[in-house]
Amino acid sequence: MSVIQLENITKTYKIGEVETRAANNVSLSIEEGEFTALVGPSGSGKTTILQLMGCLDKPNSGVVKINGQDVTQFNSNKRADLRRKEIGFIFQFFALIPVLSAYENVELPLLLNGVPARERKERVMDLLSAVGLADRAKHRPDQMSGGEQQRVAIARALASEPAMVLADEPTANLDTANGQQAMDIMQRLNEETGTAFIFATHDPRVMSHAQRVVQMRDGQLVDDGNHDATILGAAR
Amino acid sequence: MALSKLWVIAWRDLARNRRRSFFSLLAVGLGLALLILLNGYITGVVEDALQISIQLETSHLQLRAASYEDEKVSLQWKDLLENPEALAAEAAAIDEVEVAAPVLWASGVLNTRDDSVGLQMYGIDTTSALYAPFQETMVAGEFLTPDDRSGILIGKRLADSLGIKAGDNVNLVVVNADGEADESVFAVRGLFSTGIFKYDDAAALMPLSKAQAFTGADGRASAIAMLLHNQDDADTVAARFQNPDVATLTWEDLNAIFLQTMDTAMSFYIIMYFIVILIVAVIIANTLLMSVYERFREMGIMAALGMKGRQIMLMFLFEATLLGLAGIVVGIALGSLGVYYIATTGIPIGDMGSAAGDIPIGSTLYGKFNPSGMVWLSFWTLLITLLASLYPAWFASRLQPVEALHSS
To answer: Count of domains in chain B?
Structure first.
């Protein structure tokens, strides 16, 4: 079953007098447990597509379905509910709440979902162990390296057992070793939990992990296939 | 979501920007301290002036002839009380009454060889505790005895201005009960210094019986003055005197002009209060708005995690509450210190009090602790702080996640 379906999505932004079409009649379906890379040059519309999938924004036209349900016209509260339960986010900048410790950052989605204390504690520690940061639980973001922060963000994205995790350029600010480690962890958690991962990236290291690579250019899907074919296609 | 976590975030966000938080809570604190100080000052001055007026002038309750008019200081028999001793004894027998005594008022002119000055004459029961405030502030000579037939007391300031001292003779002129001028020579037995210009500059005390003889009042009195154990009983005690020829006037009636003046002064104080509180509100709103601007991206992250607008709003209101409460603690501490200073040391105003006319004000003004005032002012400060934070909080809650996430 599709965790998310985009049907004929169009999204335009107006900056001053200039109108930019960031997504142009895009249709895309992501299945349960997929590990998908959304690739393309800067300005190709990757981030816009992720934001529409993540219910952070609404399309100008077209339909967004999550778990088969049309969520296009949900109000801000309903969209917040949906994000809380079904969607995990990982951003390019290490988007942790700076005043909260690693533990508290991972705990936040569980608190928002009203998970009981004991279960919360267990789950947070499991996730921190899974990303290799159990011993850093009490550290605040400014006491951790970029790689460690991004691993906390990965743990947080998976905290409420979402149907999908949307990651926007997750390795862009990491060095090779940390980027590789982050990708390995995400791939492992994808396999263990069955959560779908969708990455916006132009990093070949990320693409090489993907089962499916969706190529975008100028707001349109130009290719959708396995990564070897797509990377070769992109190179041609 | 557990509210406790929102409190934690609010608290840590304040701690993150220690300097800004400190100055904001200092603004709340100083604002409140200023209000507490103003309130303590006004409470002190008003209550002091009222109590001085009651002690020295009006007492808590007066009985007068129904036809007596204050402004005329009439000595006509129809305007005076017959048999005042009996009436005073009747009043003194009432449980709520602490002390009661007859008094005779007259307008007079005091002449020395070189000068003359208009003053108010008080024929008093020299043994009555009503006149303890004068007795206690004698600075020269002696207090009057009941059978003194030629002695008066005047204020030291008056004596100094006329160049006379205790023991000197002065000439006193009154318009008597028959409307004719009468004069007599009196010896200044002593000088009092109540600290209140109205008395120290323009009052002369003499024994009641002498005043009655001098003015032709023939055993009558202008009023029976009463001090009560509790001033709130004035109306109850007044109701005991059901005589159509006798008017009862409570301390509130007798100080009506003063109380009205203070009400007017109070509205000025309220304007000051609003100005101060408005400044505090602007500072708080500015602090929180800056905090919102700095944390756009965090708001975006929280929204992405599924936090709702109202939860984000609540987080900022919690921050304002913490700032407000800490500011209130500082304000109460600083304000109390200030009130303690003006309550013990006072504010010297020199001769300015003499310009206050009928309002009995001394040369030093004292403040007074007003706990209920402090509670109210603190409550209002917190409320205004929260109201001032509503806009920044609302603004934060309305941020679109996409815009917030893309801000730098």
So the answer is: 2
Cβ contacts of A100 on chain B, cutoff 8 Å: 8-9, 12
Instruction: State how far residue A38 is from chain B, nearest Cα, in angstroms.
Output: 19
**B168 and B281 both lie in a single domain:** no
What pLDDT, on the 0 to 100 scale, is given for residue A53? Answer: 92
Per-residue pLDDT at B298: 84
Can you tell me the distance from the alpha carbon of B313 to that of A105, in angstroms, rounded to the nearest whole number? 19
Task: Give me the domain span that covers residue A188.
Answer: 32-59+74-235
**In B, what residues contact A, Cβ < 8 A?**
1-2, 5, 8-9, 12-13, 15-16, 297-298, 301-309, 311, 400-402, 405
How far apart (Å, rounded) are the C-alpha atoms in residues B107 and B204? 10
Query: Residue A88's pLDDT is what?
Result: 93
State both tokens at B318.
Answer: 């919690």
DSSP state of B353: G
Query: Mean pLDDT across the stretch B70-77?
Result: 83
Q: Give me the residue from B8, B15, B305 closest to A84, CB to CB.
A: B305
Residue A12 lies in a domain: no
Is the complex ipTM more than 0.90?
Answer: no
pLDDT at B74 over 70: yes
Instruction: Place A235 in a pLDDT band, splitting at 50, 70 and 90.
Output: very low
Of B263, B262, B261, B237, residue with least CA distance to B249: B237
- B75 with B108, same domain: the answer is yes
Q: Give the residue numbers spanning the domain of B282.
A: 3-53+258-406
Q: Flag if B12 and A99 touch (Cβ within 8 Å).
A: yes
- The owner of tokens 């002449």 is B111
A7-26, pLDDT tens digit by residue?
A: 999 999 887 888 888 888 89
Contact B5 A108 (CB under 8 A): yes
Average pLDDT over residues A221-232: 63
Q: Residue A66: which of A89, A84, A88, A82 has the closest Cα?
A: A82
Asked whether residue A49 is domain-assigned, the answer is yes
